[in-house]
Amino acid sequence: MLKNEVAPAVATQLLEDYREGSSFFWSSPERTLLARGVHARLLSNEHGESNNFENLPERIAELLAHTKKSGHDISVVVGAIPFDYTKPSELIVPMSAEWAGPLLHNSEIKVNKSLITDYEVQEVPEAAEFAKGVNQVLLRLAQGDVQKVVLSRSIHITLPTVVDTHGLLRNLAQNNTHGYTFGISLLNEEPHTLVGASPELLVKKAGIQIIANPLAGSAARSEDSIEDERRAVALLASSKDRHEHAVVVAAVAAALHPYCKTLVVPDEPSLVQTNTMWHLSTEIVGELDDIRTSVLELAVALHPTPAVCGTPTDLAREVIKEIETFERGFFTGMVGWCDSNGDGEWAVTIRCAEVTGRSLRLFAGAGIVGGSTGEAELAETSAKFQTLFVAMGLKQQVDEMGE
Question: Residue limits of the Chorismate-utilising enzyme C-terminal domain (predicted)?
Fold first, then answer.
């Protein structure tokens, strides 16, 4: 499939050709994909149950084999998988798929710079309740049964007119040049669109080569260059953030080791940046024992990482269920694609929003470990919301809301 990729200049046209409700758009540092229509959809497992992860790689392989036998020549599955592995995913074989190289992040992308000034905002939970939730997590940490919990909050924004999802996707693609920009139609309930620009690669596979790039430990960017550099240096030196990052890296490496004949895990994290955040990053590179191992098999083994759930995973998930006041849905799940060879790319579904008509539901989370405070974690989530706020032209107004 990757042999059919076309010149990078075509990638911008794929972005322009995206249509909400009927397209899947994916842009990574290496390639761009526009998939259209639905030829086949992954349904519940063979027992009719909703457990999303049960035999998922095998079910995807069977789906692709079935579509091939039917004469359909598109051998790729695209879509999203939710945070809660017992809930249904949104995975389809499209009617058509067009590939290109990476997007050209320049004036060729039509960017909507209009500022939205008329809108309503609802925080779920309210800031004070989120800070209270952080304190509840800290009490659990003090008991010693759980070492980290990722606590999230959401913001609901309602506009007077229908959201320009295509314009939002363009802006995200332009503003986030090194990550994974996506737009996907979700049809499990009422039709809506998941759109976002994730900085975090869960796992990528090409032949026997695999890459995972966990991020954990974050700091907000500053428009002042001197202050911005100070924050980056402080993050890299922070014992709290380095501990949080090390826990995630160790878990990712442990999940991948059984599949690999070699796995290279750097001893020290590096810094990566987006327009709004600094992150501690570790790129893990490996070679598979068996080329037949699917990228989805690796993704299922990794999900959810401590970067989006906590550690130990099962206990952290229970704490999340007890404290969070909303359903995450596809937030902190994964989004991407897989072909019939088992190759593909899956990003962690963060810096995202669900769009329905005139409304958007935005999400952000923060890893709570020893040394965390409600005030600091609230500030971190506010900074993470900025990816979507900036793309919507809401930056100044929501800066004031988050103060």
Answer: 128-384
